[in-house]
Design goal:
The complex is a heterodimer. Chain A is an all-alpha fold. Helix content of chain A is 81%, strand content 1%. Chain A folds into two domains: 18-60; 72-287, MetI-like fold (Orthogonal Bundle), CATH 1.10.3720.10. The longest helix of chain B has 46 residues, at 11-56. The chains are: A mainly alpha, B mainly alpha.
Chain lengths: 288, 298
């Protein structure tokens, strides 16, 4: 408004009109915001009430205390965190060199990489898991006499299912690609690398002491997105028969409803905390 | 050698050869650095994709389209249609409501409100899966807080139904739409509205002839994104309705778990292929739209 109003509009008209619209606008805006707030806050409040309200004794925080002593809690949470760390390491180790290479020396690969890294968005996780489980079934069917059989068995070790790490790395590719692409776009990769190389730095030194420090916020947001994805992923783990945190919540839900809702709230708060950290990291980057 | 002397002065080819050689080595280095990722995608994504395709077209050990035919019949067809209907409804309603919410926030004078809503949207758009289902079950399920307090059960309310799913899916779809549409609404310049007003346009005419046409690509893109999200959702539905509402994701999970007739195991793969086709078509609509909307909103 401010840009055009003084020059183009006569003196008397605009205050009256914009005042009128403002009041009417104020009403519908208020209605929209209140309805939205009700819709989005109610389930959160209600589930909290659900967990602390015992029909017999009234207010109680027992459900939250039970979380930490429930059977399988520590095990499944540790498994989820382990999977998350492994996935983050794998996906960064694979993606970062490739994306640097694309920027520095193989620009023709760029569209290929972009399409490949977007593909997992098109494929619903459940169809991905259908494909994976078909491949895993090949093990006993066709590969029993070959060394591949041992590989297929070992990546399905329930203590640490590598197959999940592989699947999650694929699912995380689109997010990691975008986060790193934004990060690399914000710095002059070529000049930095050439300067470092001219000063005699080897490639590992360039990567670890020049690129990584400059790419901190991009790497951080890629890692947080992957972490949130792995902690919340249910479909693949459930259908392949493993029990990380998200599957464990469902397993215990039959026995104790307040407990499972309490665990849900707990996992929500955990994820939200991570996402909040991520979004503040993002705003700090855009401001600097 | 003979060629170089005949076509160009001496220093140039030397220079050229030197630079060309350097570039060739960095180029091959580039390919080597990108190779692990390409191999990984080929193995981790390619093999399951090939297995899916192969399995979908194999029935009883021979090449056939029997699975695909079966996946488009009877209960499977019902599930597919129900999934598409649910996703389309969530997408359209979510897009409309999300746009209203975004407009309310964008036109607000309070900067803090805008920041708060955008941050909350970023968080809620990622709020899916099992915890979302449990939060709603605790709220409006059969023994949920609101159901019991307000006596909704007697009024015939049932969360474990098609409309229950719509209500729950909107919870992550509306925030996603807000995130998608806010940049577009920011791009609607106040000057355009003033120009329309100066020409005597009413608010309705402004939206009909200026606002909506400029927003259309973004709106459609948002609808597509919401459709994809609702279409692929499995965890929420599985934790909430079990198999009460037929959905294609639930059918696939059921078939993968072995609940099919002998010799029909590959129907799950055929259903998955159907899903990929639907999702692929939807995405194919989305990408060009996104490019078109980028033209106006700079």
């Amino acid at each position: 408004m401010a840009a055009l109003t003084p020059a183009a509009l006569p003196d008397v008209e605009p205050p009256a009109r914009s005042g009128g619209r403002g009041r009417r606008g104020g009403i519908w805006r208020g209605v929209v915001l209140v309805v939205a707030a009700l819709y989005f806050v109610t389930p959160l409040l209600a589930s909290f009430v659900f967990t602390v309200n015992d029909p017999m004794t009234g207010f109680t925080l027992d459900a939250y205390g039970e979380i930490f002593t429930a059977e399988g809690f520590a095990q499944s949470l540790l498994l989820s965190l382990g999977l998350a760390v492994a996935t983050i390491v794998l996906v960064l180790v694979l993606t970062l060199p490739a994306m640097l290479a694309v920027r520095l020396s193989a620009p023709r690969l760029r569209p290929v990489l972009e399409v490949l890294c977007t593909l997992p968005l098109v494929v619903p996780p459940i169809t991905f898991v259908a494909g994976i489980s078909t491949v895993l079934r090949w093990g006993p069917d066709y590969l029993a006499a070959t060394p591949f059989y041992q590989t297929i068995i070992s990546i399905q070790n329930p203590a640490f299912p590598v197959v999940l790490v592989i699947a999650y790395a694929v699912l995380a590719l689109p997010f990691v690609y975008r986060a790193l692409d934004a990060g690399l776009g914000a710095m002059d990769v070529r000049t930095l690398v050439e300067a470092a190389r001219n000063c005699g730095a080897s490639w590992p030194v360039v990567l670890l002491r020049v690129i990584v420090p400059n790419l901190k916020s991009g790497l951080a947001s890629a890692s947080f997105l992957t972490l949130a994805l792995v902690l919340g992923e249910y479909t693949i783990a459930r259908l392949l028969g493993f029990q990380p945190f998200s599957v464990w919540i469902v397993t215990i839900s039959g026995a104790n409803a307040p407990l499972s809702v309490a665990v849900s709230i707990f996992s929500l708060l955990l994820t939200w905390l991570l996402l909040l950290v991520l979004s503040t990291a993002g705003t700090r980057r855009s401001r600097s | 050698m003979v060629e170089t002397t005949s076509t160009a002065p001496a220093p140039l080819p030397l220079n050229k050869r030197g630079r060309g050689g350097g570039r060739a080595t960095t180029r091959s280095a580039g390919w080597t650095a990108a190779l692990p990722l390409l191999v990984f995608i080929g193995l981790a994504f390619g093999i399951p994709a090939v297995a899916l395709l192969g399995g979908a077209f194999t029935a009883n050990g021979t090449l056939s389209t029997a699975n695909l035919t079966e996946s488009l019949q009877g209960a499977y067809l019902t599930a597919m249609l129900s999934s598409v209907k649910l996703s389309a409804l969530v997408a359209v309603v979510g897009a409309v409501l999300g746009t209203f919410l975004a407009q309310a926030v964008v036109t607000s004078r309070f900067r803090a409100l805008r920041e708060a809503v955008l941050t909350a949207s970023g968080v809620l758009a990622n709020f899916g899966g099992v915890p979302l289902a449990f939060a709603w079950i605790a709220t409006l399920g059969n023994s949920g807080v609101l159901t019991t307090r307000l006596g909704l059960g007697d009024l015939g309310w049932n969360l474990y139904s098609f409309w229950g799913l719509v209500l729950v899916y909107l919870y992550f779809s509306i925030p996603l739409m807000v995130l998608v549409i806010v940049p577009a609404l920011d791009g609607l310049r106040p000057q355009w509205r003033e120009a329309a007003q100066n020409n005597g346009a009413t608010t309705w005419q402004f939206w009909r002839y200026v606002g909506i046409p400029v927003l259309t690509p973004t709106l459609l893109g948002g609808v597509v994104l919401l459709f994809g999200g609702a279409f692929a959702a499995y965890a929420t539905a599985a934790a909430m309705v079990g198999t009460v509402v037929p959905l294609v994701t639930l059918q696939i999970a059921d078939a993968l778990a072995g609940n099919v007739l002998i010799g029909h195991e590959n129907v799950a793969l055929a259903l998955s292929l159907d899903m990929v086709v639907v999702a692929g078509v939807v995405m194919a609509v989305y990408l060009p739209l996104q490019r078109r909307s980028a033209r106006w909103l700079r």
